Amino acid sequence: MKETNKTPLRIFLIGFMCAGKSQVGKALAPLLELPFVDIDRVVEQRVGPLAPFIQREGEAAFRLQETTVLDDLLKGDAAVISTGGGTPCEGDNLHRMNSAGITVWLDVPMAQLMPRIERAGGDRPLLFGLKGAALHERVRTLMEEREGLYAQAQIIVQATEPIPVVAERIKMALDTFYTTWK
Question: Which of 19, 44, 135, 180 satisfies CB 3.0 to 4.6 Å to 130 for a cystine?
Answer without folding.
Answer: 135
